[in-house]
Amino acid sequence: MNVSTPQSPRAGATFCVSARCREMTQQTTDESTTLCRLRTDKGVFFFYREQFERALPDPAPGNGEPLIIGAHRLADGSAWLHWFQRADGEIWAPQYRPLRGLLLTLALVFALTVAVFWIPGSATALILAKIVTGLGCVFVTCWTLAKLVVRLHPAGRRLRSELNTLQTSGLPTLSDTTPLPSAAALPLADGIHGDVGIVQGTASEVEITQWSTGSGRSQQVVRRYQLRCGSVQFTLTTPSSMLIQGGFVFRRRAPLFIGEKDPIALLTLISDGEVHGLLNLTDGLAYISYSGCSHSPQSRRVLLSILAFMGLFMTLCLLGITLHDWISRGIGPDYWDWLQLMEFGSFMGLVSLMLFGIGGLVLTFVGWRFPTRLLPNGSEVEKVVALAYQWRLHHGRSPVLIEIS
């Protein structure tokens, strides 16, 4: 089956849309987080109940209710909701704090750092005070800068501007969003197909539990989903980092959401009996566990991290050698030293470009060529990935699969 790759909106793009609600489902993932899925005639939106400054409306938006939504696009074609307005004019949005508090914090930290480190003296207590103050200032500065990055993100600023327009002068600039076609079940009967088992039906008895493994730096929080499809009980596990609270403007992947009575298709492996793929017909999303697969988003992220570390390590080493040469001479850098440093920067830029260029070619070949057809001699996990990939393309969606482990 030859299927062309559809052109999907850019991940991270912001938009405002007028839509009609079809269903809003809430799912408590832990004691402090409730994930919500809003299905409309213009697409599927995810958001946290806790991201708003007040509780969600009771009753929730019903079927057919008109809404105005501000959101940003996720990689798979769904969207992350930032704010929405109901038909009665009530608006639910996060509490946007002014920037002056964060800027004042940075100014106070800078003033405290200068005041403490300019105090003359070499007493032990003074040295300890400087160390403690320096560490505290570094922590506060990093926390404040992180908040500033989130606050000043262009996507967040555009959505806040549209929200201000909605609150003051009427309708914001609405996008002409074309809804995606509905997803259908796999054209395969339930049972075993080669090394892959397929079970299709309605999800029921969905339960979510969370626990921690390891300790210290190696500690990891794992979330387990238990559900029944047909007459069989299934289990999926995923790191809880998929649902990190705060900074949702940076989110590009849709979270794992399995609602009661969602029509789903589960892809299992005969070798281990575990679920390695979940196709949700409600929102058209495909979730994949790449465990045992040599070509995965995780492996590509590792390769990019290695390339970035190599470039950064080489840059820091050569920069350290240059600074040591300046200090050992006992004089400041002259014109020729700065010229040499500029030449060094150009050289490192060229080396980094070559490293990332080669890495990009490898990632392009691996990420786009291997799952485009179901290899007869491929591994079991690769067959699950290819089946989910073709299912997405067949229903007019982007070739994006969501990694859950």
From TrEMBL:
Keyword Membrane in record: yes
Membrane-spanning parts: 101-119, 125-150, 302-324, 344-368
Keywords: Membrane, Transmembrane, Transmembrane helix
Official protein name in the record: Uncharacterized protein
Native source organism of the sequence: Halomonas cupida
